[in-house]
Amino acid sequence: MNTRTMGGTATQEAPPVTSGPVVSGRSVLAQKDTVGLDRFTVSVVSYGKRIDDELDAELASSQEIVLVPSSGHADADVILVVTTAVTDAMLADLGRIADGAVNPRQCMVLVTGPMRERHLARAVSCGVVSILPLREATARLVVRAVRSSYRGGAVLPETVTRWLVDEARVFQQNMLATQGLSSGGLTAREVEVLKFLADGQSTEYIAEHLSYSERTIKKIIGDMLARLALRNRAHAVSYAMRVGAI
């Protein structure tokens, strides 16, 4: 899992940036007609990669964006992070920025070179909601991602989206396993009973084949219907088939 890399097949992690981030920002934009605009603040942090003039100009020209210096990190709506590669040292610094935030809506947009899968969870925990590959990130695309992230959206490469889906699936499987549940929140015993119900068997038949009393089988079914808000046995069978439990 740790060998997968976004944006290439780099096998070595970029060395930590020892000089710290380079912060870009201006406290005031040129005066513009901003009546009716939902304006928001953006603070830019770069690691080993200075933002180019095109991106700088695109950010400054946006009527919605107010760029703030590093002193405004805590209050900024969006932290735009530009880096040549994601490293442990960089993520530790983003963690400190996130911990110091006083704006509950703050989120981060990460524009980066190669990124390893093992760094994804930590980046997300810092508040990263959008990730753009550095080599594909035009100034216009970056600004669009910043706007989308502020408004509750997310911009992610296909590779990162798949990583997140894989992580969610593994997390769900592990969580269910620790609670003795299978897909759809059904217990192993409930799945056994449902397989018999799906074959049209009676509770008496199920009890005999599973070595339970008929009363126990009825209780298993009743508890399952109540817990999962299922209407009847047919609904329970349909639900189990839909979630892939049988």
Question: Would you kindly provide a written description of the structure presented here, covering whatever features stand out?
Answer:
The chain is α/β, with parallel strands linked by helices. The chain has two domains: 5-159, Response regulator (Rossmann fold, 3-Layer(aba) Sandwich); 177-242, Orthogonal Bundle (Arc Repressor Mutant, subunit A), CATH 1.10.10.10. It is built from nine helices and eight strands. It has helices at 53-61, 88-99, 120-125, 139-150, 158-178, 188-198, 203-210, 214-227, 233-242, and strands at 5-6, 22-24, 40-47, 65-67, 78-83, 107-112, 115-116, 128-133. Strand 5 (78-83), helix 2 and strand 6 (107-112) form a beta-alpha-beta unit. It is elongated, with a radius of gyration of 26 Å.
